[in-house]
Amino acid sequence: MKLTRPLIGVDLGGTNMQIGVVSPEGKLLGRSKKKTRAEDGSAKVIQRILDGISEACEDAKILPRSLAAVGIGAPGAIDPATGTVREAPNLRWRDVPLARIVSRKLNKPTVVDNDVRSAIWGEHRLGAAKGVSDCMGVWIGTGIGGGLIFHGRLYHGHTFTAGEIGHTTIFPNMPPGSRSLENNCSRTAIVDRLLRLIRTNHASMIPELADGDLSDVKARVVATAYAKGDKLTRTVVDNAAQTLGIGIASAVTLLGLQRVVIGGGLTEAMGEQLVAPIRESVRTHAAPEICKRVEVVATKLEADAGLIGAAMLAADKLSRATRTR
Q1: What element of type H or E holds 29?
Q2: Would the CA dihedral through 227, 18, 93, 72 be positive or negative?
Q3: CA dihedral for 138, 144, 268, 16, sign (positive or negative)
């Protein structure tokens, strides 16, 4: 039976949550956005998800009872069979049965998977990884997340953490907190490094672009400084891109990937200016020679990848359940 009713997709991040009403074909019909505020605890975050679902339904001019199912992409190690968030450091959650709670509150089937796995699934179904059977998503944001698709299916691994490339140790002799790809190449790490250098008298236009407020430098500020040729920004971003490319190249060599999709807020702000140096680094360091042909591309669904992918995961599970009845 073909699915006809709309779905909810939730992209739950450590800072913000994006919520959308999505058609079975992947079209966004309505949306809402909220601050996550993880420090308030899991119960209040889940209530904000529920409130956001109501707001998205109102934006789409539908009633929540008309929804077919709910899909949620959450950070960290997720058990997709039960929809339990096993460990999410950004949320400070451990063993939170998110799918069960939301399903009971809404009386709707609910699927929960990792946020970047959801995003790369969205890209696989409708975006930059469409038609590709073996690929990886790397999302650059507060941290660095990853997701893998093998033979056209999401790969979770025995520990439900497959694809988490951000935790790869790349500088083992550095002090704790500065050894991994995430420590060095995330948007957070790039901004922190820029600010440390600016505060030690390295010239940059970033303070001017940020109107003198360096307490919360956004990705768009970094992107603008880079595009305007700010020397410090270009040095820091290009170094991070090269380092990330080395880590991705190792994954390409290990797994024989056809395509890597780069996403996240910094990618959306910078586009090819960020993806190009990552691509160059991947192709320089991947081996053997055939691995250098790997395609490294930017997200097509951008900020909507996670919520669309989560909705598609919910639709897929509902369709499978219908077929087995």
Answers
A1: strand 28-35
A2: negative
A3: positive
Same domain flag for 162 and 106: no
Cα–Cα distance for residue pair 157/146, rounded to 1 Å: 13
| φ/ψ bin of 196: left (φ > 0), alpha (ψ from -120 to 50), beta (otherwise) | alpha
Q: Which residue has tokens 């698709």?
A: 149
For 68, other C-beta atoms within 10 Å of its C-beta total 18
Q: What pTM value is reported for the model?
A: 0.93
Gap between the Cα atoms of 59 and 14, Å rounded: 24
Q: Which of 277, 90, 73 is nearest to 166 (CA)?
A: 90
169 located within any domain? yes
Mean pLDDT over residues 177-205, rounded? 96
Is there a single domain that holds both residue 170 and residue 109?
no
What's the total number of domains in the chain? 2
Contact yes or no for 21/59 (Cβ under 8 A): yes
Domain that holds residue 39: 7-121+304-323
CA distance 119 to 132: 15
Same domain, 109 and 201: no
- The pLDDT value recorded for residue 15 is 84
CB 138 within 8 A of CB 97: no
Q: What residues pair up with 113 in beta bridges, in sequence order?
A: 73
